[in-house]
Design brief:
Elements: E1 5-9, E2 11-16, H1 29-38, E3 41-46, H2 57-70, E4 74-75, H3 93-96, H4 113-126, E5 129-132, H5 145-161, E6 164-167, H6 173-184, E7 189-193, H7 195-199, H8 220-232, E8 237-238, H9 253-256, H10 267-276, H11 283-297, E9 307-311, E10 316-317, E11 336-337, E12 340-346, E13 349-353
Bound molecules: (4S)-2,6-dioxohexahydropyrimidine-4-carboxylic acid and zinc ion (2 copies).
One zinc ion binds at residues 106-107, 133, 168-169.
């Protein structure tokens, strides 16, 4: 017999897009963190593809001000690796250290090996994390080599420099194998994948914008290798890559759609239903990858009074119209799932209660 209710430490999402400053028609700090609370998260780390890009203390201060004003969960931003996320000139890592959770140019890969090498040298010297969106622009994103080729390049740079290298949203079986082998050789690498790569494959993809994201959904073999990688610890963390866009931007069919889907309000139920209830992953492993592992790997604050209460036994249907996020585009719309978040507490204070909505 399973217990009906699960209570555990709240989740932490090290890869979200909250769109403020710069893109508040897609999402804001307020709506994005409300979505986080509804999903059982009390810490989120927003990526720096913003306007302005947080690449100096001055530009970061604009994002921090919105966070101080509006956030309902803890928000620890990323700074970019390169100025303006242009892939050319490094940010001042020393000045930004201590003001961000890690450094990433998410949204694009760092194309130049020389630039990545100097970023990793700086990261190693200062003890900060490089979180890489791996995508080789000279190949189509649908070719998995676009992802794993860059991972292979970076793992060698990571070996040379010893920096902490974290790979964002891995989606292919080759990436799992490369990272598993690198870990076995003692390389300082961690990685994440997202719920959609663990639960969907090409056969599920419809000609609709809600299936369009970068990297794309790949084959059943890739999905199964990711599940295996999660089970054996090759994949450390599950992050959502919550990437809201406006309804119009997601309405142009698969080919014309903006890249990105929302994820904060569906991650636990989707994964619990598809991976835990089916026996593929243990409940403890899932919670570890959504809560303890991201906190440990990103040195996030220990927050023992951040809690989530979940109903594991009452089925419900995912209805994207009820989301707190301004983004409503999800491949999971209409899925019947288990694992509804009932309550989220931050420092012992209730920030979401399903009965008080
Ligand atoms: O699907 C994606 N959406 N992939 C990215 O790399 C960027 C993100 C976004 O910002 O919308
Ligand atoms: Zn990315
Ligand atoms: Zn992202």
């Amino acid at each position: 017999m399973r217990n009906r209710f699960l209570e555990c430490q709240a989740f932490a999402d090290v890869h979200v897009h909250l769109r403020e400053p710069g893109f508040t028609s897609k999402e804001t700090i307020l709506t994005g963190t409300r979505a986080a609370a509804r999903g059982g998260y009390t810490i989120v780390c927003p990526m720096p593809n913003l306007n302005p890009v947080p690449d100096t203390l001055e530009t970061l201060a604009i994002e921090q001000e919105a966070i101080r004003r509006d956030a309902v969960v803890r928000v620890l931003p990323y700074c970019s690796i390169t100025m303006g996320r242009k892939g050319l000139e490094l940010v001042d890592f020393a000045a930004l250290k201590g003001h961000c959770c890690a450094f990433s140019d998410d949204g694009s890969g760092v194309q130049s090996e020389a630039v990545m090498l100097s970023a990793m040298k700086e990261a190693a010297r200062l003890g900060v994390i490089i979180a890489a969106h791996c995508e080789d622009n000279s190949l189509p994103g649908t070719d998995p080599r676009s992802e794993w080729g860059q991972i292979e390049r970076d793992l060698e740079l990571c070996r040379q420099t010893g920096c902490h290298y974290h790979v964002c949203h891995i989606s292919s079986k080759e990436s799992v194998r490369l990272i598993r082998d690198a870990k076995a050789r003692g390389i300082n690498v961690t990685c994440e994948t997202a719920p959609h790569y663990l639960t969907l494959c090409k056969d599920d993809v419809l000609d609709e914008g809600r299936f369009k994201m970068n990297p794309p959904i790949r084959t059943a073999e890739d999905r199964d290798a990711l599940i295996e990688g999660l089970a054996d610890g090759t994949i450390d963390v599950i992050a959502t890559d919550h990437a809201p866009h406006t309804a119009e931007e997601k309405s142009r069919g698969f080919a014309g759609s903006a890249m990105g889907i929302v994820g904060l309000e569906t991650s636990f139920p989707v994964l619990y239903t598809k991976l835990v209830r089916t026996g593929l992953i243990s409940l403890d492993r899932l919670i570890e990858a959504m809560s303890a592992a991201p906190r440990r790997i990103f040195n996030l604050p220990a927050t023992p009074d951040d809690r989530v209460v979940i109903d594991l036994e009452t089925p419900f249907t995912i209805d994207s119209t009820t989301f707190a996020s301004m983004g409503h585009s999800t491949p999971f719309d209409g899925w019947e799932v288990y694992g509804k978040v009932l309550k989220t507490e931050l420092d012992g204070n209730t920030i979401y209660d399903i009965n008080k909505q």
